[in-house]
Amino acid sequence: MSQLSHAQLVHQVANGSNSAALEALFYLKERQHLQDGSLNGSQLVGARLQHARLATAQLEAVNLSRANLTHAYLGSSNLKKADLQQACLQHANMRDAKLRQANLQACDLSYAHLASADMWCVNLQGACLHQANLWGANLKAANLRDADLTGANMTHIQVDQDTILPDGRRWSSDVDWTIFTNDKK
Length: 185
What we know:
- By secondary structure, this protein is mostly loops.
- The protein has a single domain (39-185), classed as Pectate Lyase C-like, CATH 2.160.20.80.
- Helix content is 15%, strand content 0%.
- Helix 1 packs antiparallel against helix 2 (18-30).
- The mean pLDDT is 97.
């Protein structure tokens, strides 16, 4: 696989089995293509990237809708304007990730680590953030309508009057986040 072109490796990431996609990522990383921006805007719809190592990757405006990124490591990655609709990011580590204006509608972020993530103006409508760690995340202007925040750590999050809460209201200083984070059983 090391002799494949950049385009062939990206195709393998998008369409290969999990092991083939991870191998292609290895060669892209070896060639510095994960950090040089050459993957920006890539079409990786439905990619199987469980346990992928994408720390500090430049993935601006990438389309990862319906991708399986379970247990992926995306720490400090640039996912600005990325499409992650209906992606599975269970247990993903996205600490310090740049997700500004990303679309995470109906995304499964159960148990995801999103501490200090920049999620300004992100669409999290209908997303599952069950037990997610959002400590210190920037959720200013974020859309959390119908999001499941049960058990989520919302400590030190940054929000503003443009943040839409799970019940459809806009954030205000009197919001008690426990009505969204406490187990409703």
